[in-house]
Design goal:
Layout lengths: L4 H14 L3 E2 L23 H4 L9 E9 L16 E10 L4 H15 L7 E6 L3 H11 L6 E4 L1 H4 E2 L6 E12 L20 E14 L5 E14 H8 L12 H11 L7 H19 L8 H19 L11 H8 L5 H41 L3 E2 L1 H9 L5 H10 L3 E2 L1 H15 L12 H8 L5 E2 L6 E11 L2 E2 L2 E2 L3 E6 L1 E2 L13 E4 L3 E11 L4 E13 L4 E6 L1 H25 L5 E7 L2 E7 L6 H17 L4 E6 H7 L12 E7 L3 E4 L14 E10 L2 E8 H22 L6 H37 L1 E3 L2 E7 L6 H11 L5 E9 L2 E8 L1 H4 L4 H9 L5 E5 L2 E5 L6 H15 L4
Parallel strand pairs: 1-2, 4-5, 10-11, 12-17, 30-31
Antiparallel strand pairs: 2-3, 3-9, 4-7, 6-7, 7-8, 8-9, 13-14, 13-16, 13-21, 15-20, 16-20, 18-19, 18-21, 19-20, 22-23, 23-28, 24-25, 25-26, 27-28, 29-30, 31-32, 32-34, 33-34
Helix pairs in contact: 3-4, 7-8, 8-9, 8-11, 9-11, 10-11, 12-14, 16-17, 20-21, 23-24
């Protein structure tokens, strides 16, 4: 029985509503979870409920969840079932029903509502799950030979990240028929081939997996199921692959119209583009922005892969963005947010297309030549050095290179390539301020073994501690006056550079010497804090008691700036939208730069509004709350985390009440009022899809305002006016200058017109034709045109060759009256003459112009132009 994608969604949700489930909307593709890049399963939004950390709106829930996975990106387009974006139909029990109901209802839905033939259905279960076997065999009545036990890799569902709920599962498969490849049909889903298609997975989440992979019982057992809409549509519509279903056909038709190609003749390219444009449209609508990091890089990678397959279809200009309206039109009834996101999706996708096509214009040519060269020589492995050159010099992403090599049955030494990349990164790493490279983890392991430094600087800026090691030139040794080196102590108030915040400076003193701290870094996985600097007096020895003093003013200035980054982040999201995510920062004393995901430059009004919002928070002088809690609890509270950062089970939360809440290990002001003043210095592009704000706070902001005030006063004094009248005075002066410019321009035109008329009246005349040649002092070439126009005012036959210098380069203008131009090809003449000055020219039949490089022969070129005209008129 044929069913459209819309009908499948509706029947599924209605069925489970009848079973007492609450229908909820799909959550965003961008989960507020630092352990997940994208929402990859239907249960992601319900993790807090499964873990007992929050009260669910109902114990039974059903959804259609939009999902995005890229683990099998290279398979998309080459198989019938792999996708980046897909929809997952799910029903969830949160501490309510369990295996029996989940299995019986699944069977009822697929056989009675979807009317799939029971004899074509197979199931798999986890090898040790006897309970599921009994339900399928004894209650459902499924024959024993169609219940296949499988191992943990196939039938144990892991968490949607490194940690989380998990458990055994049971999958339902559909027998596509004898015409599909299969090595042994009697094995069912355990056989090799595509005959048995899995379309629904029933996950029995009863465990929690921690960071070490250990399992513990959840407070309550849960059900998490996922039916792939695309796969179910193919089954219900009798299609060989998901791409022939109604979920893809409008998109595939649009690709054909835009490219002029046929789907049947270009299966892989059509499928890749159709899949990827769905992923891009949905992800960008939910706030993803193409960039070079994290989620943004995945979006960029998907876009670039689409562009490359577009090239295979002959599209050498942007076209993907024109498919977005088709996606929106097809899905808007289920996902109305796509309507509001259409313009943004089209804009960002077009930008990505344009940028990558520019990169490919040169790099793809080199890659193609390399591939052909390898094939001619019969070489199957491309040297890693050549692949790195494509990546580093030509800007081709490694995944694109890998795709092309695979398509041409070529490979490269991945291990060697990674070594080359690491060597390059190592060479690019900056040195510390003392001029000596920061010591590596390997050296520290050899020097000090397994120790740990305690950081005490959240609560105090002075501390006493014992020196564990003093290091110079990769060796443990005493440090004497003038020596540059490193000191390690048992505990320290010095903040090591981390999370974008610069390191503290200060002084370490002992009874025998003083050490100036210029830099502080973490080594050995962050367990050891190293103070770099120079001994300014005496000698510093190991095992001495040391007094550590942080530069208080510098620390306070950095705290002001760091807290301001949090206020700024929240303000940007309010003004620009929820797609804004921090992409990196650098925090110094009363200064910071802040990178964030956004697709275009901010308007002056937007910048002003952001600045206003931040300063409002400063004026409210809110207390900055800092506390430690579990990672899951922090996420449940709504704390923002930096994607890609590693967090332990316990995290530090920095909260500005009713404004922002972020996970952060940096140091902060006690109250927002401590910031004093916030001012944005600049807003610019950092990279594609990433903008950068530079801002100042506290004393730097005050000094900046003082400087601006002084500047305005100096200008006012210079203009002999008051400060509040500076703009009006400048506007008046500017208007006066424009009037003066007009007068001067008019006078100059009159001079050039007079020059042209004078030259005409005094010129040589042969057979009624005036022949004029002249070289003027350096001037704008437009002056020669004005002179020529003056000559035309006589309405008599003429030829004029005029020269001048413009920016020290020779310029030649050749003009003639229409009757003369009919007999003389001025374009030919000017190029002959221009050869004397090392140039060439062109123009209209009655006026041509040439430029050159050799000013010394300009007079010769002018005379030669007149001679050539006379010769062509039979007068020379």
């Amino acid at each position: 029985m044929y069913m459209s994608g819309d009908e499948i969604r509706s029947i599924y949700l209605s069925f489970f509503e009848e079973k007492g489930h609450l229908r909820l909307p799909s959550s965003s593709l961008l989960p507020d979870d630092p352990t997940l890049m994208f929402t990859s399963a239907g249960m992601v939004q319900f993790k807090p409920y499964f873990l007992g950390q929050a009260q669910p709106p109902a114990k039974r829930i059903t959804t259609v969840q939009k999902c995005l996975r890229t683990g099998d990106l290279e398979n998309v387009g080459h198989t019938s079932r792999h996708h980046t974006f897909f929809e997952m139909l799910g029903n969830f029990s949160i501490g309510d029903y369990f295996k029996k109901e989940a299995i019986l209802w699944a069977w009822e839905l697929v056989t009675q509502r979807f009317k799939l033939p029971p004899e074509r259905l197979w199931v798999t279960i986890y090898q040790d799950d006897d309970e599921s076997f009994d339900i399928w065999h004894n209650l459902v009545g499924l024959p024993e030979n169609r219940i296949v036990r499988m191992g943990k890799e196939e039938n144990f569902w892991g968490p949607p990240g490194p940690t989380g709920p998990c458990g055994p599962c049971s999958e339902i498969h559909y027998d596509m028929g004898e015409e599909w490849p299969c090595d042994d049909p009697s094995k069912g889903p355990a056989a090799e081939g595509e005959r048995f298609r899995e379309f629904w997975n029933l996950v029995f989440t009863q465990y929690y997996q921690d960071e070490n992979g250990n399992l513990s019982d959840l407070p309550r057992k849960n059900i998490d199921t996922g039916m792939g809409l695309e796969r179910m549509a193919a089954i219900m519509q009798g299609k060989p692959t998901n791409f022939e279903t109604d979920l893809f056909q409008p998109i595939i038709e649009a690709i054909g119209q835009l490219t002029g190609k046929k789907y049947e003749e270009n299966l892989v390219a059509f499928r890749v583009i159709a899949d990827h444009i769905r992923a891009l449209t949905f992800a960008i609508t939910d706030g993803a922005v193409p960039s070079n990091e994290g989620r943004g890089y995945v979006i960029r990678r998907i876009a670039r892969r689409s562009v490359r397959y577009g090239l295979q279809l002959g599209k050498e200009e942007p076209f993907l963005y024109n498919i977005v309206p088709v996606v929106v039109e097809h899905y808007k009834n289920w996902y109305p947010e796509l309507i509001g996101g259409q313009d943004l999706s089209m804009k960002l996708i077009k930008q990505e297309e344009e940028a990558f096509l520019r990169t490919l214009s040169s790099s793809q040519r080199y890659l193609d030549e390399l591939v052909q060269q390898m094939k001619k020589q019969g070489i199957k492995e491309v040297p890693a050095e050549e692949v790195f050159r494509l990546y580093d010099t030509y800007g081709l992403p490694l995944d694109i290179i890998d795709d092309v090599l695979q398509e041409n049955n070529l490979s490269t030494d991945k291990e060697k390539l990674n070594q080359i990349i690491e060597q390059y990164k190592e060479q690019s790493r900056a040195s510390w301020k003392g001029g000596e490279a920061v010591l590596t983890d390997t050296i520290f392991t050899r020097l000090i073994g397994n120790i740990k430094t305690e950081f005490t600087g959240y609560d105090q800026l002075e501390d006493s501690s014992t020196i564990i090691a003093t290091v110079k030139d990769n060796s443990r040794t005493e440090l004497h006056e003038g020596d540059e080196g490193a000191i390690i102590v048992e505990h320290t108030p010095f903040y090591a550079e981390s999370g974008g915040q610069e390191a503290d400076h200060g002084i370490i003193t002992t009874e025998t010497g003083t050490f100036r701290v210029d830099d502080v870094q973490k080594v050995l996985g962050g367990n050891v804090i190293v103070h770099y600097g120079q001994v300014t007096s005496g000698v510093i020895k190991e095992r001495q008691q040391a007094f550590l003093q942080v530069d208080v003013e510098r620390r306070k200035a950095m705290q002001r700036a760091h807290t301001a980054t949090h206020l700024l982040h929240a303000a940007l999201r309010r003004v620009l939208g929820d797609h804004v995510r921090q992409g990196g920062s650098k925090v110094g004393p009363d200064w910071f730069r802040f990178d964030f995901s956004h697709f275009e430059s901010m308007s002056p009004a937007q910048i002003q509004e952001v600045e206003r919002l931040v300063n409002e928070q400063v004026l409210e002088n809110k207390e900055v709350n800092i506390f430690f809690t579990s990672l899951d609890e922090a996420k449940h509270m709504g704390a923002m985390a930096l994607f890609g950062e590693k967090y332990g089970e316990t995290v530090r939360v920095v909260q500005v009440p009713d404004w922002s809440m972020e996970l952060c290990g940096g140091t902060h002001a006690k109250r927002t009022g401590d910031i004093g003043l916030f001012h944005i210095i600049s807003e610019s592009a950092s990279s594609q899809g990433i903008r950068r704000i530079e801002a100042i706070t506290g004393k730097k902001a005050l000094e900046h305002m003082w400087n601006l005030e002084k500047m305005v006063k100096d200008v006012a004094d210079e203009l002999d006016t008051s400060k509040d009248m500076v703009v009006q005075k400048l506007q008046k002066m500017n208007q006066d200058l424009k009037e003066k410019d007009k007068e001067i321009k008019h006078l100059i035109e009159r001079v050039h017109t007079a020059e042209g008329k004078e030259l005409f009246t005094k010129a040589e005349e042969i057979n009624g034709i005036k022949f004029i040649n002249a070289v003027f002092p350096p001037r704008d070439p437009s002056a020669l045109i004005i002179a020529v126009d003056a000559m035309r005012s006589f309405n008599k036959p003429f030829v004029a060759a005029l020269g001048t210098l413009n920016n020290e380069k020779p310029v030649l203008v050749l003009a003639a009256s229409p009757d003369v131009a009919e007999k003389v090809n001025l374009r030919e003449v000017v190029n002959i003459a221009a050869s004397y000055i090392g140039g060439k020219g062109g123009g209209r039949p009655t006026l041509v112009q040439a430029g050159g490089t050799d000013a010394s022969r300009l007079s010769v070129a002018v005379q030669q132009a007149i001679y050539e005209c006379k010769r062509r008129l039979g007068l020379a």
